[in-house]
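Slack export, channel: ligand-projects

TW: morning all. Re-posting the request from yesterday since it got buried. We need the structure predicted with the small molecule present, not the apo form. The ligand is calcium ion; the SMILES is in the block with the sequence. No rush, but it would help planning for next week.
GE: picking it up
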Amino acid sequence: MVRFRAFFLCFPCCAVLASAQSINVENFNNPGATGAVILGSSWVNNVTRGPDAITVAGTALDVNGWGASGQSLNATGMAFVTIFAQQDVGNVAPSLVLQFEDAQLRTHTLSVSTALFALGTLTAVQLPLGPLPAGFNLAQITGWTIGGGTNGIVAFRMTLDHLTLSATAAPVARLPHSADTNRDFRLSIAELSRLIQLYATRQDTTRTGAYAVATTATEDGFTQDLARASGAVVTLARYHSADTNNDGTISLVELTRGIELYNYRVGTERTGQYHIEADTEDGFALGP
Ligand SMILES: [Ca+2]
Ligand SMILES: [Ca+2]
Ligand SMILES: [Ca+2]
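GE: finished. pasting the full token output, ligand included:
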């Protein structure tokens, strides 16, 4: 581990990404969330707030029990909604419903089947933002709510992590980063070291960064390809999340992106937190 230390210092956090093509509506973080439990709803006292997500359980019903008012969201140009959530054991609610309200109190409601969200595994589901109701003003969204969308009929059991709007339907990662082998949406030093190991793969004396899909169990499902020569073209059955150009090798630029994720800080504490987001080179973005 020590021999990597100087290497880290050579790659300070570099802000490669500056896409304004998406809006984070809600991160459900604690602290940091935009919305809150809607008072008087069945979600009161039934929402557990984790650092990165809320978990709705207990006697919560399929109402829209979380939301924000007094917002001034300008969603002009946005065309897709991505919801990052999971179903939890006992969920009976058939739909996850998102409702926006504009400054003239017009509402726009989107509904997606909860079956699209894996049970117990955070899943990103993307859907078109439109068509919009006549006159709905995307430039002046003042509030939104999320939940099961009814008056309260059946049990709602979901964990909600992230809600974004985006201009394009860029491919969205549906799983944690390949380097995040314990799938906690944080890159640890051990996980980064594994990525560096793949990057450092050599054939004879030449660094190739070549990797292959593992045929025996490994922490990330990949293995160093010690046989492949530098520049040899390969097609893999699947690619490591860090291999953003899908060429079967981890390049310096790709490793640097991994280090950028690893280096994410909250104040002075390095947390390595990241989340799934459209419109980035690897389908992920810094922070919870
Ligand atoms: Ca979150
Ligand atoms: Ca991790
Ligand atoms: Ca690559």
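GE: first-pass observations. The radius of gyration is 21 Å. The chain is about 10% helix and 30% strand.
TW: perfect, thank you
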